[in-house]
Amino acid sequence: MSEEGFRTFQMIISALTAIAYAVSFTAFFAPFLRETKHAVKTRSAVVLGIFILPYIISVNINVNIPSFINLLAVIVILAAVSPFLRIQRQTAMFLSVVFFSIRALCALAVESLFFIYTQYFVQTEQDISLIFLRSAWGFAFIMLIQFILFALMLFIVSRVITKSRLQLSMKEACFLMLIPISGILYSNIIFRSLLGIKEGVIFQLYEQHPTFIWLAPLSTFLFYLGTLIIIAAYRELTMLQQEKSRFFVQRQQIRAMHERLAEVDRFYAGIRQMKHEMRGHLTNIKGLVQSRHYDELEKYISNLNNCADVFDINIQTGNPVSDVIINDKCRQAEKSGVKFESDFRYPDSGGYDAYDIGIIVNNILENALEACENIVDENKYIILSGRQRKKFFIIEVKNPFKGEVNFDDQTGLPLTTKESNSFLHGIGLSNVKKETEKYMGEMEIRAEDSEFCVTVMLQERESPAGCGRV
Question: Looking at the whole model, is its pTM more than 0.90?
Answer without folding.
Answer: no
